[in-house]
Design brief:
The chain is an alpha+beta fold and 548 residues long. It has 3 domains: 139 residues, Galactose-binding domain-like (Jelly Rolls, Sandwich); 89 residues, Immunoglobulin-like, CATH 2.60.40; 297 residues, TIM Barrel (Alpha-Beta Barrel). 20% of the residues lie in helices and 32% in strands. The protein contains 9 helices and 34 strands. The strands form 8 sheets. A 9-stranded parallel beta sheet has the order 28-27-26-25-24-32-31-30-29, with helices on one face. It has a 6-stranded antiparallel beta sheet with strand order 3-2-5-11-8-9, with no helix packed on it. Strands 1-13-6-10 form a 4-stranded antiparallel beta sheet, with helices on one face. A hairpin with a 2-residue loop joins strand 8 and strand 9. Helix 1 runs parallel beside helix 2 and helix 7 packs parallel to helix 8. 45% of the residues are buried. The structure holds alpha-D-galactopyranuronic acid. Alpha-D-galactopyranuronic acid binds next to loops.
């Protein structure tokens, strides 16, 4: 089976007048060229523009194929030899399309990308809506049928027993042999009949996956002449009272929220930058990233699997206002995203939390229904992971009982702008928040932080100075990390990220990064590093290490 990526330089045309993508392609004069993956609105001549970008590549293939696109912004339609074959309705969401590519010869693939706001990506979100193709474009030449969905679940981390749930696509109409190999050893040889089957087996010479020892096994599955290979990690998540456990060991999460954002790449950050961001986080002693506020790239998740960085991945939806929130369309789109995301990224051991609807109206009964429904979709599709949303309704929140982990985004020490310094407010506020969490629920701080303009130094430690951010970050570490009532902490945020000039964002940036947008550390980053060096954050994990 032939598989290849189409990443490279594609033909490009920008229609500045375009508002929505039609189902038929117009006559296009591809007058320039751009990179895929890449964003068209991060550099001249299309910097900051909104419209439709048409990307074209010519590729030699044929027969039954599966085309994968690892995220676009803000939405896209996909055309094969001029014919519409599918939509990418959600920004950042990976999509796959199986179709008959025709005779084996050169074909034209056009991806039309529109970066106007839409009914899931609203203009008031506090992160820039980039236009482009954010991840790789891949083709798999199929024998007609294929495995549409493969879910590998750890059944018992003590014996290395797994279950693989296999769903074939609708083109499979006969019984075929299926095999599973792990690290080159065959563990299952069976017949695959019908559309869906499950297999249980033990991994020979298994090693557990954990943040400290991110051991991966290589799995190869063949169904008739179809095959696919993937990395798997053996690990189990569990809650005991208010505490989180991974493979039976107490787990403490410490890290950052992170946007896919860079001045030169926009949301199409290259694997080299992703890997160096993750190394920076890991070297500091952190083990956790909240992928705020949308689905993540495959390269990011692959790197987290390999480096042992735990991930909260979430659907797109940020502080959505009531007239947009309480519509059927919004609920449908949240549920649809939750299902797609938990299908497509199911096999990444790094993902431990599925999230949705950042900072929603969780004090409202009508919103409670939505939260329950999206939660149920995730849980029905994946009962092995924790599901939550990040709340900023605090004491008023009426939905905390629904989710597996209560997550809050408080900003004590940053608000209260009439004071010169509000850092003394952090401790008492954290005590109040602890009291607001329902008894018996694990609790994490999913965002906390303060703005600092890179290079802005001030002897009086005023707001927006690096000193203020450093002092606040240290106080947060002291308050949260030593206290067992908190299972985790994610600073807002790893690095500065492009937003808009509206909402008081200096230079159009969300400048609460501990690094600036070019990844230069501010004093706050060093302050956290110093804290981690002195105190660590998960003594239990640190002392013991792990054998199996
Ligand atoms: C919220 C939100 C973040 C960011 C942050 C801020 O907590 O979830 O996306 O906008 O506020 O910087 O104010």
């Amino acid at each position: 089976m032939n598989t290849f990526k189409l990443d490279g330089i594609w033909d490009f045309y920008f229609d500045a007048e375009g508002k929505t993508i039609a189902d038929t392609l117009p006559e296009i004069n591809f007058d320039t060229a751009l990179s895929v993956p890449g964003c068209y609105d991060v550099a001249a001549p299309f910097f900051g523009k909104r419209g439709i970008g048409y990307y074209r590549c010519i590729t030699r293939t044929g027969g039954s194929i599966r085309l994968s696109i690892d995220g676009v912004g803000v939405e896209a339609k996909v055309f094969w030899d001029g014919k519409l074959i599918g939509n990418c309705p959600y920004a950042y969401m990976p999509e796959k399309f199986c179709f008959d590519a025709g005779e084996y010869k050169e074909h034209e693939l056009v991806i039309a990308v529109c970066n106007h706001f839409n009914k899931i990506y609203f203009s008031y979100y506090d992160f820039y809506a980039y236009g482009g193709i954010f991840g790789s474009v891949k083709i798999e030449e199929l024998p007609g049928y294929c495995i549409e969905n493969l879910k590998v679940t750890t059944l018992d981390y003590q014996t290395g027993k797994l279950r693989a749930d296999v769903k074939a696509n609708r083109f499979l109409r006969k019984t075929l042999p299926i095999t599973f190999e792990i690290d080159g050893k065959t563990v299952v040889t069976e017949k695959f009949t019908g559309k869906e089957q499950s297999y249980e087996f033990s991994v020979p010479d298994f090693k557990l996956w954990s943040p400290e020892k991110p051991n991966l096994h290589r799995m190869r599955v063949t169904l008739g002449t179809y095959e696919e290979s993937l990395n798997i990690g053996i690990r189990t998540l569990e809650t005991r009272g208010t505490q989180l456990y991974l493979n039976g060991k107490l787990l403490r999460l410490m890290g950052y929220n992170r946007h896919e954002s860079h001045p030169e790449f926009g949301a199409a950050t290259p694997p080299s930058l992703i890997a160096s961001d993750l190394q920076t986080i890991k070297n500091q002693g952190c083990n956790f990233i909240r992928g705020s506020h949308y689905p993540q790239r495959e390269s990011f998740l692959d790197a987290c699997d390999k480096l042992g960085i735990l991930v909260w991945e979430e659907t797109l939806g940020w502080d959505v206002r009531d007239h947009e929130l309480f519509t059927r369309e919004f609920l449908f789109k949240q549920k649809d995203q939750a299902k797609k995301l938990s299908d497509i990224h199911y096999n990444h051991p790094c993902i431990i939390i599925w999230g949705f609807m950042n900072e929603t109206l969780s004090e409202d009964k009508r919103c409670r229904k939505i939260i329950q429904k999206v939660y149920d979709v995730y849980k029905a599709n994946d009962s092995t992971r924790w599901v939550t949303y990040a709340s900023n309704r605090y004491e008023k929140d009426i939905c905390m009982d629904i989710v597996d982990i209560v997550a809050m985004n408080p900003y004590p020490g940053w608000g209260g702008m009439t004071e010169i310094n509000s850092i003394h407010r952090i401790r008492p506020r954290m005590e109040e928040l602890k009291a607001a969490v329902p008894e018996g629920k694990p609790f994490i701080i999913s965002e906390i932080g303060s703005a600092a303009i890179y290079g802005h130094r001030d002897p009086h430690r005023v707001r927006w100075s690096e000193e203020y951010q450093a002092e606040l970050s240290t106080e947060v570490c002291h308050t949260v990390l030593g206290d067992d009532r908190f299972c985790g902490l994610a600073f807002w945020h790893f690095c500065d990220a492009k937003s808009y000039l509206t909402g008081g964002r200096v230079m159009g940036l969300n400048d609460k990064g501990l690094l600036d947008q070019y990844r230069r550390p501010k004093l706050g980053f060093d302050a956290i590093s110093a804290y981690m060096k002195e105190f660590g954050y998960a003594p239990d994990n640190k002392k013991e290490g792990e054998s199996k």
